Amino acid sequence: MLPFLLLAASLLSSQEASAQCIDAGGNTATSETRVLSGPNGESAVLKVTTADDHSKNSHDCNADYQLRFTPAKGGAPVVADFLASDGDWGRSLSFRLDGFSHDGKELFGVLSEGGKSPTLLLLDYDSATGNALLLDLKQKFANELPPGCGSAFHAVGTTQTGAIVLELNPAKGCDISGRWSLDRSGSKPRRLSTDAKVAGLYASRSNAE
Q1: DSSP E strand boundaries for 53-196
Q2: What DSSP character marks residue 199?
Q3: Does residue 208 fall inside a structural domain?
Q4: In what helix (H) or strand (E) does residue 139 lie, and over which residues does it extend?
Q5: What are the pLDDT digits (tens) for 57-106?
Q6: CB 36 within 8 A of CB 97
Q7: Range of 160's domain?
């Protein structure tokens, strides 16, 4: 049995997978989402590889995140190694792809890690440039989320000005639900009205094994 126990990928409301670093031993293990297809035939998979970081002082668990994007019409796959995190053994890793923009140019997902220093990041991948932008949701919503109020963030679309739209499904008793717009600058998130126009994401349910 490998010294890393990784939970199997599961298809929920989005392409989501989970992993856990539970032991050291010099081996590596991977977990990945199922394939998410875009509106024009493009596709993407999000993968995490975990291993001992081989630090002489700490021997923490290193998690390398990689997005594999395949363009439409048989283009060559593009691999983006966009994040490497180092932290506690036993911390939970959860990552998913929420969907493509309807022109297939952007792809959104959410990554979260537990442990002593929890993180919550929004992934915004631009297929035209190959750039993967990460936005710190804990920091962005620091003044909006009450202490102890755990919320699930999902990217659900974009506004007419191109801002990313997030939907929050809060824990019971937290008055922070609804849709919020988040731009790519340092601006604070803005709660959207119920009649705000939002272009929803394209999220295909056709998944290759």
Answers
A1: 61-70, 78-87, 92-100, 106-113, 119-126, 131-136, 151-158, 164-170, 178-182, 190-191
A2: E
A3: no
A4: helix 137-140
A5: 667 888 999 999 999 987 899 999 999 999 888 899 999 999 999 999 99
A6: yes
A7: 10-200
Q: What's the CA gap between 64 and 184, in Å, rounded?
A: 23
Q: Which of 100, 63, 103, 56 is nearest to 82 (CA)?
A: 63
User: Looking at the domain assignment, is residue 102 inside a domain?
Assistant: yes
- For residue 30, being part of any structural domain is answered with yes
Looking at the structure of the chain, the number of domains it has is: 1
CB 165, CB 106: distance < 8 Å:
no
Residues with Cβ within 8 Å of 3's Cβ and at least 6 positions away in sequence, in order, are 22, 23, 24, 25, 26, 27
Q: Is residue 209 part of a domain?
A: no
Assess contact for 47 and 66: CB atoms under 8 A.
Answer: yes
Tell me, yes or no, if the pTM score tops 0.90.
no
